[in-house]
């Protein structure tokens, strides 16, 4: 009945004012249904009743009947009651409003808006109402409008629409996350007071602002345990809480971390921040070479002034009105605006910075630049879009940075290895120094001892000199031998089969040894045969005249015959001995050949064992990678199950919400 009466009154207003107000009313109701927050649903009827109040003004061209005036008075009374209830539900008084209450509370001020502001309201109302079609068909026009600034009362819903955070399943988990305990709670509590310390919503200890900021940061630290909590992120969450309730702020912050590169910026390693610093420094070198050289000469690194720009999106650099305008564009276009605004700032301050040293430049960045645009950010934003930004070149710089970091990691590994070797060498040097000190002490003791005379010391010195000379000679000989070995290895490397060549060389040496031994034995045997022939001839000469000799001489001849027999036997024994030696030499040669074969086999076994160890280590690494892949797969499956469960919960909540709305409609129909 209230809605019917409102339509009746609105139909009697002037055509222009009626069309404007009805458009805004329809936009507000659409936003409230999209955000679907309890505080927003509470105000669904308020805009229409509030926007109809200008009919009571004296300037209204249409005269209302007494019945209409009475009905309108009742509507005003209900509107005041709704506004009183809405004030009790707002989490921020004056600075933070949700999307529905912001538009309701500003209804009285909207009557005084200029025509330009009314046009902006109408345009943004249409955009929000037809967001899907506008985003697809008129993306460039939307970007241009965002660059000109989003109206304050539309900012909450537009931010959610820009990052697609208006219907996230994780919103249903928010209340459960607040009941859990986070390991980052102490850090968050410590840094809460440092976040917007001058802002009314956050400056008081244990205030509502600090409490909701703590809740959002704690909930995210539980959702993303790898990032946990980083101090710079609190400024972004604080700005979101100035615009919308904590549940919506939490969803928007999760989207920013996932889709706007903020998660990589806030990781403990901050690798993405290093990449941004490298890209920004290359842009300075290209566009502002004089300033780049000046920064290098003063050792004024990019991270000294620009790291907070990327971590907080200029929220700690500029006053909130200017930073919020930049944040509007960030929600639409991402980190590109940070590069553009940063380079525009340097271009506008180049002349002053070139005259300052490092300390002066720090003071300039901290005290002068933040207040250069107090009159408005339009000049800065216009200058930022005159900066040449090449996305392809930024991708190329990203690849270069990744290559540089990979080389640095390899160099760090090599440095670590060299440091380990250096430490071992130092330990070795310390050991040698201790040994040297011990030897010096012994030498002193020897000098002081009465047992050793000066002659003994001189003798020791001579021996030491000789030992050093011999050591030097040994070194020279060793070097020559090493050179020869290297030369032989080079020669051997050109041969087709090293093992066959080595075996043939060993057999050749064995054959030559046997041949030499045989020649020696043959020479000895020839000498023995010659001696025996001489003895035999003498023996024949004696035996031919034995019958003529006397008996005594015959006895001597018999003894000589016996001696000759013994010598023959001795020659036979020596021949057998030579043959035995020859066989023994052959066996030793064969033994040496077998030993060489055995040594080569052992070397091959050692090489194979080393290869087996290497393959085992490689296998362990592959098993570790496999286990890691299985673990990640399990995590992904678990995450997918959680997402499925969240979708099911969301569907159940939607069914419950539909049932509740149907019941509410029935109650309204009964009323």
Automatic annotation (TrEMBL):
Residues 89-109 have a biased composition (Low complexity). Residues 149-334 form the Rab-GAP TBC domain. Pfam families: RabGAP-TBC. InterPro entries: Rab-GAP-TBC_dom, Rab-GAP_TBC_sf, Rab_GAP_TBC_domain. Residues 408-442, 522-639 form a coiled coil. It comes from the Eukaryota. One of its GO terms (molecular function) is small GTPase binding. The keyword Amino-acid biosynthesis does not apply. Keywords: Coiled coil, Phosphoprotein. Residues 38-66, 84-109 are annotated as: Disordered. This is EVI5 protein.
């Amino acid at each position: 009945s209230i809605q019917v009466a409102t339509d009746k009154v609105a139909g009697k207003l002037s055509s222009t004012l009626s069309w404007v107000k009805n458009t805004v009313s329809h936009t507000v109701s659409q936003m409230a249904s999209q955000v679907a927050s309890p505080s927003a649903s509470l105000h669904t009827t308020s805009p229409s009743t509030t926007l109809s109040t200008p009919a009571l003004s004296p300037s209204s061209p249409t005269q209302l009947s007494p019945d209409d005036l009475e009905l309108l008075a009742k509507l005003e009374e209900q509107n005041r009651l709704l506004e009183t209830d809405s004030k009790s539900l707002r989490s921020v008084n004056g600075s933070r409003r949700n999307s529905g209450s912001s538009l309701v509370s500003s209804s009285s001020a909207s009557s005084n808006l200029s025509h330009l502001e009314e046009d902006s309201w109408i345009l943004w109302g249409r955009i929000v109402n037809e967001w899907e079609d506008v985003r697809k068909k008129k993306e460039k026009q939307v970007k241009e409008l965002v660059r000109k600034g989003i109206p304050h009362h539309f900012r909450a819903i537009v931010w959610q629409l820009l990052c697609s955070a208006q219907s996230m399943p994780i919103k249903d988990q928010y209340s459960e996350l607040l009941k859990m305990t986070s390991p980052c709670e102490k850090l968050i509590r410590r840094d809460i007071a440092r976040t917007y310390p001058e802002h009314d919503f956050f400056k008081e200890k244990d205030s509502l602002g600090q409490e909701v900021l703590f809740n959002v940061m704690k909930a995210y630290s539980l959702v993303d345990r790898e990032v946990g909590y980083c101090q710079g992120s609190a400024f972004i969450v604080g700005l979101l809480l100035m615009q919308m309730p904590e549940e919506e702020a939490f969803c928007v912050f999760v989207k920013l971390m996932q889709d706007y590169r903020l998660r990589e910026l806030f990781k403990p390693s901050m690798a993405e921040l290093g990449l941004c610093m490298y890209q920004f420094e290359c842009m300075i070198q290209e566009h502002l070479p004089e300033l780049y050289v000046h920064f290098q000469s003063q050792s004024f690194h990019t991270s000294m002034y620009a790291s907070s720009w990327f971590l907080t999106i200029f929220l700690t650099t500029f006053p909130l009105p200017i930073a919020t305008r930049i944040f509007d564009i960030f929600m639409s276009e991402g980190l590109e605006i940070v590069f553009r605004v940063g380079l525009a700032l340097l271009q506008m301050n180049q002349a002053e910075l070139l005259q300052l040293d490092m300390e002066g430049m720090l003071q300039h960045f901290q005290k002068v630049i933040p207040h250069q645009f107090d009159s408005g950010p339009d000049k800065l934003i216009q200058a930022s879009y005159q900066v040449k930004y090449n996305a392809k070149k930024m991708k190329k710089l990203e690849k270069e940075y990744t290559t540089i970091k990979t080389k640095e990691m390899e160099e760090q590994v090599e440095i670590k290895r060299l440091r380990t070797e250096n430490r071992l060498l130092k330990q070795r040097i310390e050991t040698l120094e201790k040994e040297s000190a011990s030897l010096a002490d012994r030498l002193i003791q020897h000098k002081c001892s009465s047992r050793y005379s000066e002659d003994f010391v001189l003798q020791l010195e001579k021996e030491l000199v000789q030992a050093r000379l011999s050591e030097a000679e040994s070194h020279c000989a060793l070097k020559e031998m090493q050179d020869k070995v290297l030369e032989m290895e080079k020669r051997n490397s050109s041969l087709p089969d090293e093992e066959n060549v080595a075996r043939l060389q060993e057999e050749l040496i064995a054959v030559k040894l046997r041949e030499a031994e045989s020649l020696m034995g043959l020479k000895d045997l020839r000498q023995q045969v010659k001696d025996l022939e001489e003895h035999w001839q003498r023996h024949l000469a004696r035996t031919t005249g034995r019958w003529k000799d006397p008996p005594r001489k015959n006895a001597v001849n018999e003894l000589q015959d016996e001696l000759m027999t013994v010598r023959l036997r001795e020659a036979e024994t020596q021949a057998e001995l030579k043959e035995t030696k020859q066989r023994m030499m052959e066996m030793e040669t064969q033994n040496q050949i077998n030993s060489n074969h055995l040594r080569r086999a052992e070397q091959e076994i050692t090489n194979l064992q080393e290869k087996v160890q290497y393959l085992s280590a490689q296998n362990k690494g592959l098993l570790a990678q496999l286990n890691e892949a299985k673990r990640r797969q399990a995590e992904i499956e678990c995450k997918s199950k959680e997402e499925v469960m969240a979708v099911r919960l969301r569907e159940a909540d939607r069914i419950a919400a539909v049932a509740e709305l149907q019941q509410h409609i029935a109650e309204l129909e009964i009323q």
